[in-house]
Amino acid sequence: xxGTAKNGIYYEIEGEGPWMTLSHSLACDIHMWDPQMELxxxxxxxxxFDTRGHGKSVVPQGPYTMEQLxxxxxxxxxxxxxxxxxxxxxSMGGMIGQTLALKHPEVCASLVLADTTSRRPENALxxxxxxxxxxxxxxxxxxxxxTMTRWFTEPFRTANSPAFQxxxxxxxxxxxxxxxxxxxxxxxxDTFDRLPELKCPVLIMxxxxxxxxxxxxxxxxxxxxxxxxxxIIDQASHISNVEQTAVFNQHLxxxxxxx
Length: 259
Known about the structure:
Layout: E1 2-4, E2 10-14, E3 19-23, H1 34-40, E4 45-49, H2 66-79, E5 85-90, H3 92-103, E6 108-114, H4 124-138, H5 141-151, H6 154-159, H7 162-173, H8 176-186, E7 202-207, H9 215-224, E8 228-233, H10 240-243, H11 245-256
Helix pairs in contact: 2-3, 4-8
């Protein structure tokens, strides 16, 4: 099943079981989660959606806020009649999940927060501002190489697998306005002090070589959430679900006690 919600958010639904909602990284789309779908659809009714400004979703003029991104999802869930869902988000998707869970705690049955952060460093506005300037001046081609270098380890980039190529094409296909709008939201993420309010089970995963949202930040998030579980995935950078699919999926199997 696929469709577009009244607010312009594109979604697809597959599988049977309790609801599981997947939220992708900046400059990706629903297909970032393809490596997890065979596993998840055996156990969950999986909702994937394209964040505003990405994929087949609406591209409003930016800047966006993290609250807007979370509200988009809440409106989608409400329209689909979903009162509670498990949540898995990577990078920006993890930030949206934190924001949604803090704003609507009854909605999230559990959270998987992968390669994400809850508080940006002091240089965030300049760092993300520079990327916006480059994208507006040169298109997404202008940010492709630096993005892929941050997202994947050198051996994985060198192997140039179909999965790597698909993510690269996804970056190029991202509308510049959507990229810029979401960069503005990411640059202002600040949920860290409120993380102890989360009461649902939380799985935290991060690549050992992730420099954008490093293991140290994952450890701090873990310390803020008493009921959380933390796994650091070796030989992976930022998009750990793609680079180390087997390990990432095994942690999901263990966390959700899947057979």
